[in-house]
Structure prediction request, 531 residues.
Amino acid sequence: MRTPAGRYGRGRVVPLRYNLVNDRRSRVGGTAPRGETGSMYHSSTSTRRAFLVWATSFSAVGLLAACGATAAPATVASSTVAPTSAATSAAASQVAVTAASTSTATSQAAAAAVATPTAVAAGATGGVITLKIAPKATGSPGALDKQAADLFNQANPGLKLELDVPPSGNYYEKILTEIAAGEPPDAARIDDYLLAPSVARKGIDPLDSYIGADKSFDLGDFDKVALQNGQYQGKQYGMPIELDTYVIFYNATAFKEAGIPLPPTDWTDNSWTWPDFLQICQKLVKQTGGSTDRWGFMYDYAFVSRLSAEVYAQGGTFVDDPLNPSKLTLDNPRSVAGLQFLSDLRNRYQVAPTQQVLDKGGGSQKMFQQGKMAMYIDGPWSAAGNKPAIQNRFEWDVAPLPHEPNTQPGETAISNCLTILSGGKHKDDAWRVVKHWISPQVQELHAIVPDETPSRRSSLPIINKVPPPPKNMSVFVDGFAHSISIIHTPVYDEMQKEILDALAPVWDGKQTAQDAIVSLTPKINSLLQSK
Prediction:
């Protein structure tokens, strides 16, 4: 059984460079606006290779001694800074009702305290310092990055923030080159699952001393799971830019044509269980002769983060403790049954397409946009891609992940985090950049697209201003209360590869989930315990 409530106690004239490193959120086949490509099931080889080179580079340059911040450390304890799940759920419910009701005097004060970075007088740090930001893009910087940089420069006349985007190639390889040259970025945006490997290689600094010394910074404004996504071994190594949950994207027009009531928006609704979901998928399949014109649903097995969300949603478990895993728990009966159910959707019930069909169709999201897939699983970034692709050809919206009968809903929530690198030379200025990139101003730039869901409670009301579709934006936020953090382990990449490779025959119907897990478990346990 899952833990109740789904939470584990859970650039430089001397250039200061801020880099956005590796977003692992593939856009479910075919659509990868942040630089990731491939079919729905693709290996993480390029990401893994890049990270290993990055880690090796840290060792090669000897990890320059950290300079800058001298504030006394202040330990960040989850139990004292993170509200309870109930509080999160209540806040989310208020957001769904009206933005005005959540804008209390307290949240307004918290937002005001961090909305604009502390202005820095010209010359206060020994002259104007050029801060270089390398967004996760090549060719040209994105409009949101430009706007965020402009906001920073307006508030900090003593600093100059520039967007550093390579004209071609891989932006990440450019970062690795800088690290190997002995001039590593001072700050970086990395995915939550890369925090533990980075800490193990002494690549990033804990942020607790900066947080403790900065009286204007309200850590309590962040969701508990978002903070957990940035923690490792009891310290806060990354500040979450967003907190994104996985949901079901559905073709509302297809539901209406099939005479099926639209899915609920409540994560605990007992009419939205996996047995009910299967029957709905079967009704949504549309065939002409022996050809399938529209599939019912496609699950996601491209990353452990998505796979874990699907396992949690079926009442299973993935590891013994996501914040400090020592063993794989996919041999839990509910987990095995959940994985087998996903395989059966394709191989037994034939409501999900084969990998060959997915590849030919461009992936789940593209097939959904073309009306060839009634439902698929993804995060808020997917909505930004669906709007221009679908336009007014059919109605669509989002719904919670289904859950098992008589069990609590389950979910995984992911974050990109801002970190300060150990080899950087301007730590205080790096902290200013970190604060800015996680400020309500910048979070709301992305939320209104929508591309990301804010990790700050004071920024959540912005979702009410997102032009539909989707109409049910509150579903993303309400999922916070049922979410578990990402798995943190220095061997995450190796663990992910082993798991995805072992389960590939299951998705193809060549092996049962039980048999795959039996052989997989000892390998992962040995790996986790070798960290």
